[in-house]
Amino acid sequence: MPELPEVETIARKLEPELIGRTILDADLRWARTLAMPSPVLFKQQIRGQKIKQVTRRAKYFILNLSDASLLIHLRMSGDLSIRNSTNRPEKHDRLVLKLSDNQSLFFNDTRKFGRVWLTSTPEELLGRLGPEPFSRDFTSRWLYNALSKRNRQLKPLLLDQTFLAGLGNIYTDEALHMARLHPLAVSNSVTMEQASALREAVRKVLKEGIRRNGASIDWVYRGGEYQNHFRVYDREGKSCAVCGAQIKRITVGQRGTHYCPECQLQSAA
Q1: Whether residue 3 lies in the annotated active site
Q2: In whole angstroms, what is the distance from residue 150 CA to residue 140 CA?
Q3: 132 is catalytic
Q4: Rounded to 5°, angle at Cα 161 from 156 and 154
Q5: Is 50 exceeded by the pLDDT of residue 268?
Q6: Domain with CATH 1.10.8.50 in the chain
Q7: Is 255 a catalytic residue?
Q8: pLDDT band for position 105 (50/70/90)?
């Protein structure tokens, strides 16, 4: 599932190819891909919109248009690419936006979980999200206070997008290992020192993920190499690079979770 580094990579890649182009038409090939508005209104409202900015918020890919915002959540298997408008849509293309200069933006989604919103009030959707990990609001003090106010296991809490935006299964496991915190540790047991270490770990693994163009492992995303540098994720049975212990896999909140039993002692967290 694409997380913050993968979405950021896509946004950076597509930005120079999209800014300044005009959306001429839309071909909605799977109705449920569109969350809002209705298909008829969507086609009416998207035509003639000029793309002014390409950005990201949490795991949302955002096109700021001349008179609205187009939000795309890739979910489990979504991907975005630009192709020549003469190219025929592929089997799993769910939405095609025909652009000026004979180009088109294709939203491909094998599992059909991805969603698209066209709205003039994006904050109604994005406003419920937690702070961005690279924002000034994400301080060690904020994190410590936020953890202290909750009585939840760390792994599910960090996956909660209303708590902190952008983390998914991969980068949460990686950050917890770097911070030497057990995924089952209770949030209000985390000390200020541990919260500071967790903040730094979150930023470091996300920054490294972006530097390596994300991870190509369990979805259609192309070109990332962070999977070659995982600390614990998807490394069950392999040796921890820090201490040499065998990486374990457990299920936390219905999510496969990887950790080192020596580096991440549950009793110490």
Answers
A1: yes
A2: 16
A3: no
A4: 25
A5: no
A6: 140-268
A7: yes
A8: very high
